[in-house]
Amino acid sequence: MSSPQAYRGERLGLPEDGQASLAPASSRLLALAVDLIASTLIAALFVAAIHHGHRDNDLASRLPGSWSLIPLFVDYVLGMLLAGQTLGMRLFRLRIIRVDNQYEPVNPWRAVVRTVLLFLFIPALVWDKDGRGLHDRYSDTAVVRS
User: Fold this and answer.
1) Scanning 49, 96, 111, 145, which has its CA 20 to 30 A from the CA of 85?
2) Three-state SS for 18?
3) At 141, which helix (H) or strand (E)?
């Protein structure tokens, strides 16, 4: 029988607190909210540009709807690949690392798998003892303080 872990992230070899420690759920959720709002605003600009000049007064046709998933996908995948973080994560001083080697950047396969699983929503709601969602477990990543 293994001994219980003393803190979240111990099994992953991460520090208990400070830089590179696992990010709290509250910061992760706030960063996600920023990313969702930003992607919705970007999609709304494109939808408004497309409908500019049309006499369509239907509000529903002018809302961004599912189009906001495109900039969100780009934010997550490119953000992970280029900077190790999304716009929201940058604001809350978080970053995404590889658990197997935190000094190596997240590769494209992990970035796409993590993002697709996050979009399915359910994997993000199922957390392990370290507070990582299934999308992090399957992509072997973790969100840490930067």
Assistant:
1) 49
2) coil
3) strand 141-145
pLDDT score recorded for residue 121: 86
Pairwise CA distance, residues 107 & 99, whole Å: 12
- 36-50 in b/e form (b: 16+ CB < 10 A) is eebbbebbbeebeee
**What count of other Cβ atoms lies within 10 Å of the Cβ of residue 128?**
12
DSSP string, 50-73: HHTT-----HHHHS-GGGGHHHHH
CA distances from 81 to 33, 55, 56, 76 (A): 20, 41, 40, 9
> What percentage of the chain reaches a pLDDT higher than 90?
70
Residue, of 42 and 63, whose pLDDT is higher = 42
| Per-residue tokens: 96 | 């995404």
